[in-house]
Write a structure and sequence with these properties.
With 248 residues, this protein is α/β, with parallel strands linked by helices. It is built from six helices and nine strands; from the N terminus they run H-H-E-H-E-H-E-E-H-E-E-E-H-E-E.
């Protein structure tokens, strides 16, 4: 593990940054997940309970309409959204994972469209989605400005009254012995023993909350820690239906 050269606590600063380094980081992330996609997809069969709970809440609150799954991987959550009646678009930076998603769609018979793209620059018009699922992806982005830009993009594409579920790995996970946010690389082991490093930014819960608060395009409706991850439900900024009510 390496010490983070960004702020450990409080809102992450948005710096101008170097466009080349951001592009390189996105390319590196794509290369990592293209390399491990086949094995990774086989280990991601079921929807997370926290996502199931969010979808159930949204069905009860307003019903599903057009939903976006950012970092869709093999489409396990896109499938869940489609089964609950949403018109689903799944986006991922890995073309190989998108291939796994298309294979799952064909085998399971659910309806969804899949798009290759970057979470920090979503290729969709403003106010396009009633729900967004953005789990297990934010923590792979770097630097801090890219993570914040991706959260701003969530607010941009949500329609008024829409909701998004955002998650990131937390220092509360039992594999970490740290209290403050930090960045690290965690190995993925392929069959045969080859290891592939994956970048992570691990949030402490207070820093995750502060990061959300620093993005003017979104309001945090609720936040909690579950299964070692920070989860937040967010709404577009100044949404008349939203109210901040954190619960850990």
């Amino acid at each position: 593990m390496t010490a983070d050269d960004e702020s450990d606590r409080g809102a992450e600063r948005v710096d101008g940054g170097n466009g080349d380094s951001v592009t390189r980081a996105a390319g590196e992330l794509q290369a990592v997940y293209d390399r491990i996609a086949d094995h990774f997809a086989k280990t991601r069969e079921y929807a997370w309970p926290e996502v199931e709970a969010f979808v159930d809440d949204e069905v009860d609150r307003r019903g599903l309409d057009r939903a976006l799954d950012i970092g869709c991987g093999n489409a396990r959550h896109a499938e869940l959204l489609a089964e609950q009646g949403a018109m689903v678009v799944g986006l991922d930076v890995s073309r190989e994972l998108l291939g796994a998603a298309q294979k799952r769609r064909q085998e399971r018979g659910f309806a969804a469209d899949f798009v290759h793209g970057d979470a920090a620059g979503l290729p969709f018009a403003a106010n396009s989605f009633s729900q967004v699922v953005y789990v297990a992806t934010l923590h792979h982005l770097r630097p801090a400005a890219t993570r914040q830009r991706s959260l701003a993009e969530v607010g941009r594409v949500l329609e008024p009254g829409g909701r998004a579920l955002v998650s990131a790995w937390s220092t509360a996970h039992d594999r970490f012995d740290r209290d403050s946010s930090f960045e690290t690389e965690i190995e993925w082991t392929l069959p045969g023993g080859e290891t592939v490093d994956r970048y992570y930014y691990i949030y402490d819960p207070a820093a995750f909350r502060d990061t959300l608060a620093a993005v003017p395009e979104i309001d945090c409706v609720s936040m909690r820690v579950s299964s070692g991850n920070c989860y937040a439900v967010v709404a577009p900024a100044d949404d008349a239906e939203s109210s901040t009510a954190d619960s850990d």
